[in-house]
Design goal:
With 660 residues, this protein is an alpha+beta fold. It folds into 4 domains: 209 residues, no CATH class; 182 residues, Serine Threonine Protein Phosphatase 5, Tetratricopeptide repeat; 104 residues, Signal transduction histidine kinase, dimerisation/phosphotransfer (DHp) domain (Helix Hairpins); 155 residues, Histidine kinase-like ATPase, C-terminal domain (Heat Shock Protein 90, 2-Layer Sandwich), CATH 3.30.565. Helices cover 56% and strands 13% of the residues. The protein has 20 helices and 16 strands. Strand 13 and strand 14 form a beta hairpin. Helix 7 packs across helix 8. The longest helix has 76 residues.
Length: 660
């Protein structure tokens, strides 16, 4: 045994030196080469990303500078371009004047008093309006006040004056309980052209919208009126946009017509979008001085460049910068919607043919971001480093060679290791089984030889005088000799089976007769150990072609096995019957039983169930293996039905097709 273990150690050592060691070296070299290639690829990717960032920054600045020049030129040519809402470039969200380092928003400039304003104190319109207000509020003479308001509306020199007068007239008519006439005046005010606003920038038509909403047909008119105001050329003031928001919320929620509700919700979305822009513009106005935008004459850090920088601002990011409006020295603030501008530069086009790159703009500097240009303050580009497009390049032929060689070597190594492990494991297991077999056979041989010698010496000394006792001693000697013969036959037969020399001689035979012969052979051992054998034989079974001695040996092995594992039970069943096209020989015990997990292995050579009870029982582990071989050699099979603690039933199934 020591020699075998030493041989296994040599095999393992030689395997490690001849296969594993070169494999490990090759794997290490392959991994090193692949790692170096990956590092070089990452460096190329980083260089390419910096180039793309630089080119993207230059393209972005070029686009912004074009926007700056176009909007500044348009503002210098037409001052109304700043207060208007439709700019030359779709990305521009706001143009505002800068006066005395203060930001003047478009609606602030639009609120400057005009000659036609209702606030003018030296016009006929203003004097008539004051008389009407005196009659309404001081004298409570509503008819006289309504006549004066109507006269003021007819004498108005501008639409805002007429609208203001008709709003007062409608209010007075309401006080006079003339609802129909009052509603008619409100509807006339509601139909004023877009852009007619009061001194607060609120469209006069919005003051008439609330009363009109009191009628079922007024919802459609109010929604259409708000839509018209949204399409106006000028900016609505914050007060005006809030006015529109409140009206649309009422119309979208209370309109009786589903179509009007849908139209109102769509207009409400646009109003909220405008409101976001206005709120951010107001915040920019408040933070303008704190932003400390560089003056136009400031030099850029890069030599040869004098364009003022762009700064990211706001929750909905804008890029803001200053521009001049020659020939005047006025300054102009330009705010560009960053998201709209970025959409033309972000993924969708790959700027690199070597390394396809995907990136996104991020507000603020991040650890994994790259600054596109110092003049784009607060902006960085972040590449999708985990994207397959960046890291996936077609493998080179050399890398494929290394990969396939590595797979081949590892496959051979693992397969060889598996074979070695399997062989060593099998050898160790067989060595253990042989060791157990030798021990069991030695014990099995020693027991009958000891009995034979003891009883033979007793007879030679002439101690038993009683003829019956002498006969009993002789029967024991004969029985132990037969037991020894069966054991030797099992070992010899198994040896022949292992060498492929076991030959069976089938001939027509009666299975009931074979079973009775086996029962008679086991009669004395069964009686000596107190067993009762219940024999049931189907006498109608025809003769079939079998090896008489082999089948008898199989039955004897099953009976011996039943005796060993019957435990406290002393009853064994033996029967022969026919089941369909099969002849069945069955041995039944009511002993310890076999665990289901061991039932598939008990017919293997040398195998014995490892339980404390079995360790004390003699056995070689060959009996059931011989039974299985005999049954299979006759075209049949052997099966077991067993449960722990309830006993076992072993059945030999032989085909009836072998009958003569």
């Amino acid at each position: 045994m020591g020699v075998k273990i030493q041989g296994h150690r040599k095999q393992v050592f030689l395997f490690l030196v001849a296969v594993l060691l070169p494999s490990v070296v090759l794997v290490a070299l392959t991994l090193r080469i692949v790692t170096q290639e990956r590092e070089l690829a990452q460096k190329r990717i980083a260089d390419e990303q910096r180039r793309i960032t630089r080119e993207t920054g230059q393209a972005l600045l070029a686009r912004l500078e074009k926007i700056r020049l176009q909007e500044a030129a348009a503002s210098a040519t037409d001052p109304r371009h700043i207060s208007g809402r439709h700019y030359l470039n779709a990305e521009v969200v706001l143009l505002a004047e800068v006066l005395d380092n203060r930001l003047i928003l478009p609606w602030d400039a639009a609120r400057r008093p005009a000659p036609s304003s209702v606030l003018s104190q030296d016009s006929e319109f203003a004097r008539t309006m004051r008389q009407a207000e005196s009659q309404e509020f001081s004298s409570k003479d509503y008819p006289r006040a309504s006549d004066l308001y109507r006269k003021s509306a007819e004498a108005a020199a501008a639409l805002d004056q007429e609208g203001y007068a008709r709003l007062q007239l409608a209010r007075t008519l309401t006080k006079m309980k003339k609802q129909k006439e009052s509603l008619s005046e409100y509807q006339r005010v509601l139909s004023l052209p877009p852009g007619v606003v009061d001194e607060y920038g609120v469209p006069l038509s919005m003051y008439a919208a609330e009363p009109v909403l009191q009628t079922s047909a007024g919802f459609q008119a109010v929604v259409e009126r708000v839509e018209a105001e949204l399409k106006a050329e000028t900016w609505p003031s914050p007060a005006g946009i809030f006015f529109m928001k409140d009206l649309l919320e009422k119309a979208a929620g209370a309109a009786p017509d589903a179509g009007v509700q849908k139209e109102g919700r769509a207009a409400l979305l646009e109003v909220r979008r405008r409101l976001e822009t206005i709120e951010q513009a107001l915040a920019l106005q408040a933070d303008f001085q704190r932003l400390n935008l560089p003056p136009l004459q400031a030099q850029d850090p890069n030599p040869g460049r004098d364009e003022p920088p762009w700064t990211v601002y706001g929750q909905h990011p804008w890029l803001v910068s200053l521009a001049s409006t020659p020939p005047t020295p006025d300054r102009l603030l330009i705010a560009v919607d960053a998201r709209s501008l970025f959409s033309s530069f972000e993924p969708g086009q790959d700027l690199s043919k070597e390394v396809p790159s995907r990136f996104r703009f991020v507000v603020g500097l991040t650890s994994d971001g790259l600054s596109p240009d110092p003049r784009l303050q607060g902006l960085s580009l972040v590449f999708e480093s985990n994207a397959p497009e960046i890291s996936a390049k077609p493998w080179s032929l050399q890398r494929w060679f290394y990969f396939l060689a590595l797979v081949l070597v590892l496959g051979v190594t693992l397969f060889g290791a598996y074979l070695l492990w399997r062989d060593v494991r099998r050898e160790v297991r067989l060595a253990d089984l042989r060791s157990q077999f030798v021990s069991s056979v030695s014990h099995e041989l020693k027991t009958p030889l000891t009995s034979i010698r003891m009883f033979a010496e007793t007879l030679r000394l002439g101690r038993p005088k009683d003829p019956a006792a002498q006969m009993e001693y002789l029967d024991t000697i004969v029985n132990e000799s037969e037991r020894l013969t069966r054991l030797l036959n099992n070992v010899l037969d198994f040896s022949k089976i292992e060498q492929g020399k076991r030959i069976y001689h089938p001939a027509p035979a009666s299975l009931p007769e074979i079973v009775r012969t086996a029962a008679r052979a086991m009669e004395y051992p069964l009686k000596q150990r107190g067993f009762e054998l219940d024999l049931e034989v189907d006498e109608g079974l025809p003769e079939i072609r079998v090896d008489h001695d082999a089948i008898e040996q199989a039955v004897l092995n099953l009976l011996s096995n039943a005796m060993k594992y019957s435990g406290e039970s002393r009853r064994i069943g033996l029967n022969v019957r026919r089941e369909g096209g099969w002849a069945v020989i069955q041995v039944i015990d009511r002993g310890v039983g076999v665990d289901p997990k061991d039932q598939a292995r008990i017919f293997e050579k040398f195998y014995r169930v490892l339980t404390p009870e079995n360790q004390s029982l003699p056995g070689t582990g060959l009996g059931l293996a011989l039974v299985a071989h005999i049954a299979q050699s006759h075209g049949g099979s052997v099966k077991v039905e067993s449960a722990l603690g309830e006993g076992s039933a072993f059945s030999i199934l032989l085909p009836m097709g072998n009958e003569p």
